[in-house]
Amino acid sequence: MSIFGGNGSKATRGFREARGNLRLTGVTKEFGDFTAVDDLGLEVPRGSFFALLGPSGCGKTTTLRMVAGLEQPTRGRILIGDTDLTGSRPYERPVNTVFQSYALFPHLTIRDNVAFGPKRRGEADAGKLADDALELVQMSHLAARKPAQLSGGQQQRVAVARALVNRPEVLLLDEPLGALDLKLRRQMQVELKRIQTEVGLTFIHVTHDQEEAMTMADTVAVMNHGRIEQMGHPEVLYDLPKTSFVANFLGQSNLGDGRVTGTDGDDLVVEVAGTTVRIPKSRSTVHDGAITFGVRPEKVRIRDQRPDGAGNDVKATVVDVSFTGVATQFLVTVASGTTWAVYEQNLDVERNHLRPGDEVWLEWESGHAFGVPVNDVEAAAATVADPDAAKAEPRAHQSADTSGDGTGDGSGSDPDALAVPS
Amino acid sequence: MTASTKAAAVGGRRTADGAADTAGGYRPPALQRVRTWFANRFAIIAAIVVLVYLFVPVAYTFVFSFNDYRKSNIVWNGDAGPTLKHWKNPCGAPGVCDALVTSLKVGSIATVVATILGTMLAFALVRHRFRGRSTSNVLIFIPMATPEIVLGASLLTIFVQGFSRFGLRLGFWTIVIAHIMFCISFVVVTVKARLQSLDPRLEEAAQDLYAGPGGTFWRVTFPLVLPGIVGAALLSFSLSFDDFIITNFVSGDETTFPKFVYVSYLRGIPAQANVIGFSMFVIAVALVIAGQVIGNSRRK
Amino acid sequence: MTVASAHVAGGGTTHADPAPAGGARKRSWTAYLLLLPGGLWLLLFFVIPLVQLFTVSLQSGFPGYPGYYYRDVNIGNYGTALTEFAGHFGRSLLYAGLATFFAFILAYPLAYAMAFKAGKWRNVMMICVIAPFFTSFILRTIAWRQILADDGPVASTLKFLHLLPGGHITETWMAVVAGLTYNFLPFMVLPIYASLERADARVIEAGGDLYANGFTTFRTVTLPMSMPGVIAGTLLTFIPAAGDYVNADLLGSDRSTKMVGNVIESQFFKVLGGFPVAAALSFTLMALILAMVFLYIRRFGTEELL
């Protein structure tokens, strides 16, 4: 299949045909004094759905733009298969982008928008290809319209079709669903996943929405400060975060700083704020000295009395109770003064009897705990440290998990770009 | 007015939630509604009054084109009644049509040159960072902040005392040179505004879709900036066609239409001037409306 | 700067990306190539003539040879300009100021209606504002002379109502200011319209929601949002009005309503040997206006104009 066959047209001169995995080696991007992307190494297997997840300004959009060719790395190489793409222009790469604001050409019809790429490459049947692509995203009936006459969701589909029609080796999606409302976003997530499975191309999806990343991607890479903190299958990442940043950015975690005091079989014995807890050695990246202990809120059980089971436990005071339908969320203060979150599924019909101020015991299985290195800066920023603040505005601190909008920035603006000096 | 018509009018800029969004949906309390009703009508009524005011002298020009005047077409001749003779013979007054042709020629040449030069300047200023950029910005702004009479006076002194050494005489070409000069700044400002409102992602998208620098420019940038360029050209032509003050300084013996009217006012103005002035008005309105209609049908 | 531009974009697509895609980092020789023809034109036919005008303003006439000058540093020309013609300068600034004020009063409702109330009539109204340009402004000014004439409709009505003590409108400052107001009105309407059109109607609605009072909304929300347009409009009206001489010539009297423009014109064309004083007058006028413009821009702070 030689879609990108050199037909000698002007637009394809210098075009770099390439197949295979996308590889980034030692990629660094500096804007003046600011390092947006720091020595990034990455390999994305061909045909996978890969998500780059991170907060505003973490360098994910800059990474995407370097793969697209819209920025050139300060150092490092970008390859697809064995073909080095570093230094080539965007129009010389087998890579297409679905832009954040869609960037549909307002002066062209939908069909002409989609046919733009094939025409520039000199495809004889550009119109036919465009129609097929519009068929794929179920937009054929609006082919003759102009972008301004379409709703946000429809524009989004067109943007996907316009990129897909070129059958790129890698398709880049820059916060493609950011401007859509929640319901439409869910729908498009499913749709994009379907399309990816259907066409079998490599998709790289940049987002700050951890839920979106986990729903859609085979592999998620969590970025922070221009580096990849951790990369892997979403379930693995969630179950076993390797840094406190990942523990809090991907879902939510109850964390506590402590010290490894010894070992007991396969477990580490850790002292956190006067309480002794256990972490399986296999679930900790630190085996001695300072450690941050963590456990996910839904893995914690709340008890009226001290449990006598084999699990770990700690005494706590209820601060806030919120009923969310399927679950009830408790905010509790543990002895050290740290606030924890606990989710209990509402399995029973009887109403919950706990009220703020009640004394309770928290219990969890030691096999659910994890240990990560202490990160003073991140820990201070990410964990709920101030119980008063938690009382006043509990949701704000816990927003990483449920809102599906990790940074609270759902406006659709490009957060990465804000950090780039002009 | 819905947001979608507004978006269409703005052209190209659209809200994130697109056409589905409407500005309405909010209903204020009754008393406020009454107030708003008056406020709304006030703006509309005032606007219509001002528009009428703008057209009163045009109407006068039209009416006096039928005047069977004696010496000068200033006072209505009630004894004779309206006549069509000036409309039947619009070039009847000596020099009037020559002046019109000169104005049209000057306007066309000045518009073409000023639009090209001004558009190039606008692109340089918006798309490039270079040494002397802010100086260039000021250099382009100052001609607009300079009274026409000063522009005319300075050009007169240079044409008479300086450039005459190179064989440049006051006349047709000095008018053209002057008109290009004062039109450039207006072109730059108009095109610049359009260029600045252009979403940079559109050009990135074009590059991403295999358009090289030339393809990106001619297929995306240029078509999107074109309305601004057309607007700038129309503005240039109307400024040039209507200019009297600068023209009067640099024209020597050459006569443009406004100069013809001004000069003949002292000797006795012919009604043919009214015929031509009003006709130009009608032609201009017809052309602009035709352009709008074509533009609208293309947008659909 | 990034935040500002995103803010200006308002309700539209957010372009927070400060790295200009079209390549602001293109090699600068392209920039100079683009600048060269236009820049050269402005240098040759704007900057150099101004320099020439300045040298002329310092020249002296050859005694006994009217119309011939020699290079000199004759500051006396400026003395003559400022003393003999101080009244003309004052009138120019006063008339232009009044005309700008009246034009603003007339233009704002029109621009507002075009931006927010006109709907599909918006383009028609736009054409109506520009169209009168094509009937030569000299013709329209002559029409005003006819309209405002002693036996014309305006003067007769005012006289009937005993509102016109002098009995004349033409040959007085009123006719000159009226003419200036009329002629430069479109230059006031268009920038205000442009800035209002860019403003988000929903913000103004929200303002109405907050203040309930229409005038308060206007003063606190609408007017500030259209400020760049108002500034541009007042400049585009005031500057040509201050330098105009056609209105004073066609509508005013020979004695009491002459403006600087009339003096410059007659010094150049009617007074033999008047070139240096005319040049000094022009230069003073320009300096005066530029100083006012820059003070004005600084006071109301908009770099957008530059």
From TrEMBL, chain A:
Compositionally skewed regions (Basic and acidic residues) per UniProt = 388-398
Region annotation Disordered: where it falls in the sequence:
383-422
Record keywords: Iron included? no
Query: Keywords in UniProt for this one?
Result: ATP-binding, Nucleotide-binding, Transport
Q: Which residues form the ABC transporter domain?
A: 22-250
- Regions of compositional bias (Low complexity) in chain numbering: 412-422
* Any one annotated GO CC term: ATP-binding cassette (ABC) transporter complex
Q: Which Pfam families match?
A: ABC_tran (PF00005), TOBE_2 (PF08402)
MF terms from GO for this chain are: ATP binding; ATP hydrolysis activity; transmembrane transporter activity
| Alphabetical list of PROSITE patterns matching this protein | ABC_TRANSPORTER_1, ABC_TRANSPORTER_2
PANTHER family from the xrefs?
A: SPERMIDINE/PUTRESCINE IMPORT ATP-BINDING PROTEIN POTA, SPERMIDINE_PUTRESCINE IMPORT ATP-BINDING PROTEIN POTA
Protein name according to UniProt = ABC transporter ATP-binding protein
UniProtKB/TrEMBL annotation, chain B:
Localisation per UniProt entry: Cell membrane
Q: Where does it mainly reside? A: membrane
Gene3D superfamilies for this protein = MetI-like
Every ABC transmembrane type-1 domain range: 100-291
Question: Transmembrane stretches, by residue range?
Answer: 42-63, 106-126, 138-160, 172-195, 216-239, 275-295
Keywords assigned: Cell membrane, Membrane, Transmembrane, Transmembrane helix, Transport
Extract one GO cellular component term from the record.
plasma membrane
Look up keyword Transmembrane and say if it applies. Answer: yes
What InterPro entries does this protein's entry cite? Bact_Polyamine_Transport, MetI-like, MetI-like_sf
Superkingdom to which the source organism belongs: Bacteria
Q: Name one Pfam family in it.
A: BPD_transp_1
Q: Which GO terms describe its biological process?
A: transmembrane transport
Its membrane topology, per UniProt?
A: Multi-pass membrane protein
Determine if Iron is one of this entry's keywords. Answer: no
Q: Which family does it belong to?
A: Belongs to the binding-protein-dependent transport system permease family. CysTW subfamily.
Q: What is this protein called?
A: ABC transporter permease
Which organism's genome codes for this protein?
Knoellia koreensis
Automatic annotation (TrEMBL), chain C:
Q: List, alphabetically, the SUPFAM superfamilies matched.
A: MetI-like
The record's section on InterPro entries has:
MetI-like (IPR000515), MetI-like_sf (IPR035906)
ABC transmembrane type-1 domain ranges (all copies): 89-296
Compartments (UniProt record): Cell membrane
The record's annotation in Pfam families points to:
BPD_transp_1
Its transmembrane ranges are: 32-54, 93-112, 124-143, 173-194, 229-248, 268-297
Keyword Cell membrane in annotation: yes
* Gene3D superfamilies linked: MetI-like
GO BP term, pick one:
transmembrane transport
This protein's GO CC annotations: plasma membrane
Give the way it sits in the membrane: Multi-pass membrane protein
Record keywords: Transit peptide included?
A: no
* Region (Disordered) residue spans: 1-22
Q: What keywords would UniProt list here?
A: Cell membrane, Membrane, Transmembrane, Transmembrane helix, Transport
Instruction: Report the principal subcellular site.
Output: membrane
Per the similarity annotation, which family is this? Belongs to the binding-protein-dependent transport system permease family. CysTW subfamily.
Question: What name does UniProt use for this protein?
Answer: ABC transporter permease
What organism is listed for this UniProt entry?
A: Knoellia koreensis
